[in-house]
Every structure is written in structure tokens, then in C-alpha cells.
Amino acid sequence: MSSPDSAVLAATVPASGRPRLAPHVRLTFDRARDRHVLLRPECVVVLNRTGADILGLCDGRRTVAGIVEDLRKRYDRVAEADVQRFLSGLVDRRCVRIDPEPAPDRDTEAVDG
Amino acid sequence: MDRPFGLLAELTYRCPLACPYCSNPIDLAGYRDELTTAEWLRVLEEARELGVLQCHLSGGEPLLRRDLVELVRRATELGLYTNLVTSAVGLSRRRAEELRAAGLDHVQISIQAEDPAVSDRIAGTPSYARKIEAARVVKELDWPLTVNVVLHRQNIDGLADIVGLAEELRADRVELANTQYYGWAWRNRAALLPTRDQLERAEKVVREASRRLAGRMDVVYVLPDYYEQYPKPCMGGWGARQLTVAPNGDALPCPAAQTLPLPRASVREESLVRIWTDSPLFRRFRGTDWMPDPCRSCDRREVDFGGCRCQAFQLTGDAARTDPVCHLSPDHGIVVEAVRAANEEERPDTLVPRPHRAGSS
Fold first, then answer.
1. pLDDT at B356 over 70
2. How far is B173 from chain A, CA to nearest CA, in Å?
3. Any signal peptide, and if so, which residues (chain A) (predicted)?
């Protein structure tokens, strides 16, 4: 897990990045499996509870560091590198996008869209 | 037992196109008595109950169903991610807006070739201009768009232009899938199977396009499995992740499975849940117990699941054999011979079009 590859991957999601779901990706709860899932045209990602909690915080405003801080209120031990690794896996699967700092002015965008 | 993720809802086999690589059944006579709206609504509900999360509305041409908007609306209410797989013939702006309002999540439009004349010739009907127009409407409505092009000997050399067209249409994905030899495509195999040189050129184009378009457009390329070393993991395993419901209500573990000499399972007679769980059809090749050697002892048995049962049947007459595409299959010589012929022999230029329209009313 701590291979050079995963370090490179995790580096694509900096602590200052602001993750959000990629356009047209839906986060939903599947009662049949009792799990949260991510839906895209050609793929379904079944999430565990921690994964669902992380994605629930990916609103394009919070930074990865901010998300980790929030998670620490709910969980005893949260390693920032684990969160980065999880998100970078979803970036590779085109489910998550990372906005760099500074945060875009989302309020304006929300009015337009 | 696993729960399925995807339902391929083949709403009708009627189609305005006559593509010579059509994978729908050869004999369509048994599919004219289509499920009613009420029956499809029940199928969608039962699919969701079973755990299905994605619903691919396909055919034939699904737009020929007048109840399409209603089916999409119900699928959306149930929480299904809906994908329309269409020729785009009949996707007027008004119809598109209705589908958008009903909650349709994604649109996949087929194009037969980059060149309008070639595209129309392969489709068997003037359709290129309408497809382009519909693709533009899809993007204007801010839908995610996949452009799908079935590749073969007669259009694969235009791959770079096909990618360029998808880019110009602002597609989010372009799916470049070589023909699979089922149904009508099987009849035209000699005229469709590309040469090794063609595939090498195509792969170069795909590599360059993927690099250039990274982050903007997904480029998905599927090699003809005849040229692969290992078979495709058909449907992610038999009765494991996907199921198909044909226009007449037959439930199938693989869209080509109606060709197999197995007992039928129909949503007109049983619930989808029961079919998935208990039917002899869905249990026949589930898991790995059915496998012969070399699959049985192979490390890849849970990777490719022995390949495609329908292809094994088509090529060997026995659906329980290893897919002959696998280089370890005792029947691999059949595939080797087809590939040899594609590379060394004169091949017919003429494609036999699928006479869809004659049988469509």
C-alpha cells in the first residue's frame, strides 16, 4: 500500500485541494445493499461508511485538510494520507474532481446554474 | 449470491437502422409481442428491489417506444441511473426535453463512421445528419454524452477522424468498440474482422487521443476479442452483475444468451427476483463449479469467468466449453483460423444489411 505509486497518486490530491463530485456523478443510498453508492454512466462504486462520510463532505468548498478535521470529530483516528489515497482512487475513476486553491466563487456559480 | 448492478432493458428490436453488425437475434419474429408499459414498470420496480442501480434503455431503437418518457420517469423515481442507448433517429429537441425533464441521466448516441456517406451506407439509411443534430441538442441540454462507434474492417481506418468528431461534439466519452460477432454480425464476420495492421494503427490513434484528451474526454477502446490472449469477462460473470430483459420479456444473463439451448425465463411468468435467484437459466453458469479444464484450475477463473458462454456455443456448439478466444482453450484453433483468414485472404467488401425495417411494423 505504501508503494511509491500510491505516494504519487496521493500527491495528486493535495491537502489544500477542494474535492467535489465530478459532474453527472450521483451519490445515493442503496437500500438493497444497505450501502452508499456512487453512480456514473458506466460504473457503480459501492462505498463503506467512512467512504460515504468523506464524500458527504466533498462539497467543493472544504479542503482535504478541512474534511480530515471534520472526520476527526466523528472517528478516533483519521490519517490524512488515507483520505488522500481514497480520493485519488476516485479521481482516477473520474468520480471526483479536485479544485485547486483558491476556492472558486461558488455562490456566483450557483446563481448561474 | 451477488445482486445485479445493471439492467439492460431492450425495449424493442424495431430499429430505423440496418447495421450489418447488429447483435440482436437473427430471427425477430418471436419479439414482436413486446412487453406493455405496465409490464416494463413492474420490471423496473423488481429490478430495483433486486439491487439494480443502473438502467440502460436500449433496443433496437428505444425511442420507438411511445412510453419511453414514462419509463424513464419511473426509473428515476426508483433511484436508478438511466442511460439511453440510441441511434438518435427520433431524438427531436422536444423529445429530448421531455426525457431530460423525466430525469434521464445520460445519452449514448451511435455513429457508424466519421464520413457522412459511409455512416449512412453502414446504417442503411440517411441518418448521419440527424445524429449530429441530436448530439448537439444533448450537449445544449447539459447532458453527459457518450458517442459510440462500432469498429470494423470498413471504418476503423477513419478512427482519428471519429475521435475528432466526438471531440467537436463535446462528448464526455467516446466508446470505440470493435464488433462482437453475435447475431447479424456473425453472418458478416468475414467482411467485418479487421487485420492486425489495421488494429496496430488504431491502437496508436487511441494512445495519442487518450493522452491528448485526458481530463476532457474519456476514450474507451475495445479490441476485437479474437485478437486477445484471454477472453472478455462477459457480463462480469454469468448471473453475477448484469441482466438483460428482451422486448418479449425474456430475462437473460447475457444479451446473446437467447441462442443457447437452455430453459427460458420470462418476466411474464415469474418475478425478476425469482428469475435471478432460482431460475435454471441464471444458475446454469453461475460461479465456477460448471467450469471444465483449463478454466477449472486456472488462476484467471474469477477474472474472466471462462469468457462468453454464447461465443463458446457459437464457435464449438457447446456453451460449457472454455471461450475459444482464450489461448489456453483446446478450441483456440478456430479463432486462430478466423484471424489468419482476416490477414491473409481476400475478404468480401459487401456487408449484408440487417433487414430491420421490413420486419419492423
1. no
2. 10
3. none
CATH number of the structural domain spanning residue A55: 1.10.10.1150
DSSP designation for B225: G
Q: Total structural domains in chain A?
A: 1
Alpha carbons B297 and B312: distance in angstroms, whole number: 18
Give the residue numbers spanning the domain of A73: 13-94
SS3 call for B234: helix
Determine the pLDDT at residue B361.
Answer: 37
How far apart (Å, rounded) are the C-alpha atoms in residues B162 and B192?
18
Rounded distance between C-alpha atoms, residue A33 and residue A49, angstroms:
12
Cβ-contact B158, B131 below 8 angstroms: no
Residues belonging to chain A = 113
Confirm whether A1 is domain-assigned: no
The mean per-residue pLDDT over the stretch A52-81 comes to 94
The residue-averaged pLDDT of B210-228 equals 92
Q: How far apart are the first and last CA of chain A?
A: 40
Asked whether residue B15 is marked as a ligand-binding residue, the answer is yes
Task: Report CA-CA distances (Å) from B265 to B56, B271, B320, B336, B348.
Answer: 20, 10, 19, 35, 39
Res A6: pLDDT: 42
- Please check whether residue A101 lies inside any domain of the structure: no
Is residue A3 assigned to a domain? no
pTM, entire model: 0.91
Which of B51, B218, B220 is opposite residue A33, by nearest beta carbon? B51
B152/B192 Cα distance (integer angstroms) = 5
Q: Is residue A77 part of a domain?
A: yes
